[in-house]
Amino acid sequence: MKASSRFSHGYFAFVMAAAACALPATAGAQDASGNTGKSRPVPEASGHIGGSIERAKYSWADDTVTTSSTTYVNIPSMARTTKTKRKGPLIVIFCAEAHADEGEAVWVRVLLNGSDMLPDSSGQNVVFEGDNGFWYQSKCFTWAKKVPAGTHTIQARYLSANGGPVGLDQRSMTILQR
After folding, report:
1. Terminus-to-terminus CA distance in the chain, angstroms?
2. Left, alpha or beta for 20 (phi > 0: left; psi -120 to 50: alpha)?
3. Which parts of this chain are annotated as the region Disordered (predicted)?
4. Is 36 within a domain?
C-alpha cells in the first residue's frame, strides 16, 4: 500500500504557475489542453532571463509510471510543443509524487528542443526522490531559459540511479512563456 497526497494536478499546476510568476487569476481562460490563449502580461520574471510571462500551458497525468532504466527515458504524458512570438523567458515547472526503494533515487531532467535545460558535468540533473523505501513524496523543480521566437518542444525525462524500480505518480508540467 502506498501513501499518497491526492490532489488535482491540473489545478495544482495552475496554482504553482500563478504563485511562481504572480500570474493574475483572470489572465485568461483555459481550454481542455491547459492553454490560456491571449492573456495580460505579468510582471518581469526574476533572475537573469528577464521578460514578461504572457501564457501558461500545462500537462498532467495521475497514473503511476515506473522505470529501472539507468539512462533517461521519456516520462509519459510530459511533453509539449509551444510557440513563442518573440525572444523571452520559457519556464518549466515539473511536479510529481516520486518513489524510490532503499538504495535508489529518481533523477529528472527537462529537455528543450532536445537539449538539457539544466546541464551539469555529471550528466545528472535533479534528484526527485532518494532511498525512502515505502512512501511517495511530492516534489517540484523549476527550469528556466531564454529562448528565441519560434516552435519549442519540451520533454520531461527520468531515470533510476542504480537500476532498481523507481516511480512517479500524479505529475504535472507547467510551461510559462512569453
Report:
1. 43
2. alpha
3. 30-49
4. yes
pLDDT at residue 10 in the model? 41
Q: State how far Cα 144 lies from the chain centre.
A: 11
Q: Is 2 inside any structural domain?
A: no
Q: Are 71 and 159 in contact (CB under 8 A)?
A: yes
pLDDT tens column, 136-168: 788 899 998 889 999 999 999 999 999 999 999
Rounded to whole angstroms, the Cα distance separating 140 from 61 reads 15
Question: Which residue range forms the structural domain that includes residue 62?
Answer: 9-177
Q: Pull the grid cell for residue 134.
A: 515505502
CB atoms within 10 A of CB 176: 26
CATH number at residue 139: 2.60.120.760
What is the three-class DSSP state of 162?
coil
DSSP three-state, residue 10 = helix
User: Please, what is the average pLDDT of the chain?
Assistant: 74
Return the pLDDT at 154.
Answer: 96
Cα 113 from Cα 134, distance rounded (Å)? 35
- Grid-cell match 537573469, residue found: 48
Question: In Å, how far are 48, 77, 83, 143, 144 from 151, measured between CA atoms?
Answer: 22, 19, 4, 18, 16
